[in-house]
Design a protein that fits this description.
There is one protein chain. It contains no helices and eleven strands. By secondary structure, it is mostly beta strands. It starts with a strand and ends with a strand. The relative contact order is 0.31.
Length: 126
């Protein structure tokens, strides 16, 4: 499975961006759980959001709750992260990840995923 993240860029504080993660390869779209992680400058990669394969339950890191929305389009093998009310502290390289199956809280962990995209940079200016 190959993942391709896109949609990053430079935005002013309070603005919005929509990240996409397109999957390709041999897999069953209906059994994949997806996640977004981010790595701020000089910091470790951290969990942002996840959506489960079985019931599309969404999970969010506390600082993005109410501002970010994770969603999926199984027909297009694509996952999205809608980011609103962006803050300078949201500046990071954002990575998408996927795995077959999966459940919480494993989906909040880096080692909970088998497949990773290359990352897309989001810069929020103040």
């Amino acid at each position: 499975v190959q993942l391709q993240a896109s949609g990053g860029g430079l935005v002013q504080a309070g603005g919005s961006l929509r990240l996409s993660c397109a999957a390709s390869g041999s897999f069953s779209r209906y059994t994949m759980s997806w996640g977004w992680f981010r790595q701020p400058p000089g910091k470790e990669r951290q969990f942002v959001a996840a959506i489960t394969w079985s019931s599309s339950i969404q999970y969010y890191e506390d600082s993005v709750k109410g501002r970010f929305t994770i969603s999926r389009d199984n027909a297009k093998n694509t996952m999205f992260l809608e980011m609103n009310s962006l803050k300078p502290e949201d500046t990071a390289v954002y990575y998408c990840a996927a795995r077959v199956g999966g459940s919480w809280p494993a989906l909040s962990r880096l080692n909970g995923y088998n497949y990773w995209g290359q990352g897309t940079l989001v810069t929020v200016s103040s």
